[in-house]
Design brief:
Layout (H helix, E strand, L loop, with lengths): L1 H19 L4 H13 L5 H7 L5 H20 L6 H25 L3 H20 L5 H32 L5 E3 L2 H10 L5 H5 L4 E3 L4 H20 L6 H29 L5 H16 L1 H12 L13 H28 L17 H17 L15 H22 L9 H19 L16 H8 L5 H6 L36
Antiparallel strand pairs: 1-2
Helix pairs in contact: 2-5, 4-5, 4-6, 5-7, 6-7, 7-10, 7-11, 10-11, 10-13, 11-14, 12-14, 14-16, 15-17
Length: about 500
């Protein structure tokens, strides 16, 4: 039976050789062109079938050159090496051009992966027959860049969806299993929190573990494309780190800016964003270790690309802080629009104005939320920090400046003593708020200094200001920012000019 099969194979080869003897070189070139000439990729078809669209043509090219290689090595004088190489260069150029067009239509990363795997299989097979395929692997590096851009677009939608779905509230944890599940998704350790009984809350919102998980998924997706490309571990590690840096500095950074600048974003949401980005910043070294583990390249390798996650999250946190300061000032302006001073009132009231009382209550409740802000990256997220202090000082300075502008408006031409008394009561209410320490961490009366200009300008309207101008020493502790200047002295009298006495005429 085996002899019969061998005889059939031998007869088939002889028959193929006799047929190929009648095919000219120009006809063979035409067949190569015809392989790709009938292949017309279009966006709709490629999105539907992915790499399988190119599979029939690549399979045809593969079979064609396997036969050519067999003829080259089993016959004498029928074909030569130069002829096969010329034919291969022609087919390779057409193949690469068609595959470039094919890949440019793909917008699904899974379809690009299918195409990449098909090209790798095609290249490895023909390389085994001795055909040069370096151009195919160079093209795969180009497709890798396209693949990276497709991934960035996909993860941009993912991050935005996570931000839109987040409730910007600390994660409540009811059981030990739930706590371990979340800490398994995100590297978080807090010995003090672990000692607390259930139920308890994690300081960050769902945004943090979901984003961290998606960062790892992105790294896995980058690794999939680099497989079987005959790259070294260092090259793969560098490629993954560069792609991850693009994800952090461009995609995730833009999404965070979108969430921060979004219309109607509340102060509580901005505070939670600051907490979230602080914890994500602390997790960057875990992400470095994750990449090193899957690439087997130590993170301290010379010339290794470092992740820019720290700067990304710092920039987002600073943007959120600035947005907090801006929003607070806008809220203060809204309350001040309700101010309605009667500058000619006969006497002032004994209580602070209603608008100011409401404003102080709003600031107290706002700064109570700020006590959850982290101070430094190494501190616990429940500690008050510099962000809260800066926001409080900024709000007090803005309030002081705005009240002073009310008093010094151009249309305020006259001010009665009763109006000044009411204004003084409001200033005292602001000072009482500052002394109460709405945010811990201020030393002494530091916060009270925000209203010192307002206080001294108000005192200027009271009767004892002339005594300060005449006798500044006893009042120096009251008018700290005023330096009395003596009244201008009248210019000395001009001596009479000497005029010559006219000589009488004789």
């Amino acid at each position: 039976m085996s002899g019969l099969l061998f005889l059939q194979l031998q007869v088939g080869c002889q028959l193929s050789a006799s047929i190929l003897l009648n095919i000219s070189l120009s006809t063979m070139r035409y067949q190569v062109l015809l392989m790709w000439g009938n292949y017309a990729p279009n966006a709709i078809r490629l999105q539907a079938c992915g790499g399988s669209c190119a599979h029939p043509v690549l399979s045809l090219v593969h079979r064609f050159f396997v036969v050519e290689d067999h003829i080259l090595h089993t016959t004498q004088g029928l074909v030569n090496r130069a002829y096969v190489e010329e034919l291969w260069e022609l087919a390779l150029s057409k193949t690469i051009a068609a595959l470039r067009t094919h890949s440019s239509y793909c917008t699904d990363p899974d379809l690009v992966l299918d195409l990449k795997n098909l090209i790798v299989l095609f290249a490895d097979t023909l390389q085994g027959y001795g055909f040069p395929v370096n151009q195919l692997f160079d093209m795969l590096l180009e497709i890798r860049d396209q693949y990276g851009e497709i991934l960035l677009k996909k993860w941009n939608q993912t991050f935005r969806q996570i931000l839109d779905q987040d409730n910007y509230s600390p994660i409540p944890v009811a059981t030990e299993e739930e706590y371990r599940r979340i800490t398994g998704q995100f590297p978080f350790q807090d010995p003090e929190l672990e000692k607390m009984p259930f139920p308890k809350k994690l300081p960050f919102s769902e945004f943090v573990p979901r984003v961290y998980t998606q960062l790892k998924e992105f790294i896995y997706a980058c690794l999939k494309f680099s497989e079987d490309l005959h790259l070294s571990s260092t090259e793969i590690d560098d490629m993954i780190r560069k792609s991850t840096n693009l994800l952090l500095t461009r995609t995730l950074s833009n999404c965070l800016q979108y969430a921060i600048k979004k219309k109607n974003v509340g102060l509580a949401e901005l505070v939670q964003i600051i907490i979230n980005t602080t914890h994500l910043e602390q997790s960057c070294h875990f992400l470095e270790g994750f990449i090193s583990n899957i690439t087997n390249v130590p993170p301290d390798t010379v010339n290794a690309t470092k992740l820019y996650g720290t700067s990304t999250f710092k920039d987002a946190r600073h943007a959120a802080e600035e947005e907090i300061y801006t929003n607070l000032n806008q809220k203060i302006d809204q309350f001040l629009q309700l101010a309605d001073y009667d500058w000619m009132a006969a006497q002032g009231g004994g209580q602070a104005s209603d608008y100011l009382s409401d404003l102080i209550a709003f600031l107290c409740s706002t700064f109570a939320v700020f006590t959850h802000l982290p101070g430094k990256a190494i501190e616990h997220a429940a500690m008050p920090g510099k962000v809260a202090q800066t926001a409080c000082m900024s709000a007090c300075k803005h309030l002081s400046t705005s009240l002073l502008q009310l008093l010094l408006e151009a249309d305020v031409r006259q001010v009665s003593m009763g109006a000044l008394q009411q204004f003084n009561v409001d200033v005292k209410e602001c000072e009482r708020f500052a002394r109460a320490g709405p945010v811990p961490g201020f030393q002494g009366d530091t916060l009270l200094l925000a209203f010192i200009d307002l206080r001294q300008v108000g005192l200027c309207f009271f009767p004892f200001l002339p005594f300060f101008l005449l006798f500044p020493s006893p009042f120096s502790s009251v008018f700290l920012l005023f330096t009395p200047t003596p009244p201008p002295q009248p210019p000395p009298p001009t001596p009479p000019s000497k005029t010559s006495t006219p000589t009488p005429l004789l």
